[in-house]
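Researcher: Let's continue the batch. This sequence belongs to Photosystem I reaction center subunit VIII, and it's 381 residues. Same format as the previous ones, please.
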Amino acid sequence: MSGFRVGIQEGIVAARPTVDAFTRANYLGAVASRVDSFWVPDHLNALFPRALWQPKYAGAAKVMPSVDAFLEPWTMLGHIAARNRIGRLRLGTSVTDTGRRNPAVTAQGAATLHLLTRGRAILGIGTGEREGNEPYGVEWSKPVARFEEAIATIRALWDSHGELVNRDSPHFPLRNALFDLPPYGGKWPPIWIAAHGPRMLRAVGRYADGFYPAAPHQPQEYARRLDVVRAAASDAGRDPRSIVPALWMGVVTGRSAAEVDQALESEMIKAWALNATDEFFAQHGAQHPLGIGFGGGQDLLPHDWDENTALSYIKDIPREVLSETLLAGTPAEIVDRVAEWRDCGVRYIVLANFSAFQRSLRNGMAANVPFFKIIRALKRL
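Model: Same format as before. Here are the structure tokens for Photosystem I reaction center subunit VIII:
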């Protein structure tokens, strides 16, 4: 792959006046900015405290009744593909879950989207998070082991050529399983894996077409992890350079530095820093508000916090921690920061615009202009 590529993630949370109003607007903005791909998350609920989703803390609460009203991703991707005949962007999940979803169903969904879009689907996949599994009765003690078996199962079904598949597995045993959907043009959807820990990085090397972690971590740490991925690919007899080095990051921007500073003081945006690990806080000389050893977004369960509890967790988050969990700044500042990631190996970045989560609805909506300015500038990196 040559050049630097850019994707946009849309939140797909039910809005007004129609549930997909923001999704439609952001898709058209993505097409106009000539991005390479359009992504949707796979969540039942958000990684933000619902007690703070009030207009006094987040202006977007005036037009989006709930921060947790996530639409189902595969249905939405099919809707986007059918409704939007212009642009024909690649469409991906960012990322789907091997906890809640049986891998045979995921294999079917991704293959179906790939056929319907004539080869434009990307299967972004990871272990998922505790918030989308444990409250719904999904066992959460061994998410990485479950993930490895799910990916192996998807590959086994896709590579079966319609023959019966038998495979022993502690999580997903196959007994005369049949998968007979054809690949589009002889190719299955590329698999991009959201990976951070050593075992997940090795899984990327063995199975993935793309390395797709989410910040927060430093560009130099990304380079180190990419080396682990490529070594694992080489050990598995694969071409290490065939794996796309990608990255997901949230963005907070504005028309001026003052607007960015104001946005970063907003409660919902500050709450995003709770998705960082205690190790990340410690690197900045701080302790995670949820305690020593807290695992970050994978273990975050903010839905039963009351307003005062949520405020108590975010009140002392250091600005430098928050700024490092996001791409925060004016367009020029953000482009310079992304260039650092590019210099450490990233060749494909997917951005989610968090600017609308600030207190001011007007500034949050106005931030779309600098956000798409960033997208266009990154296309020239």
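Researcher: Any comment?
Model: The mean pLDDT is 95.
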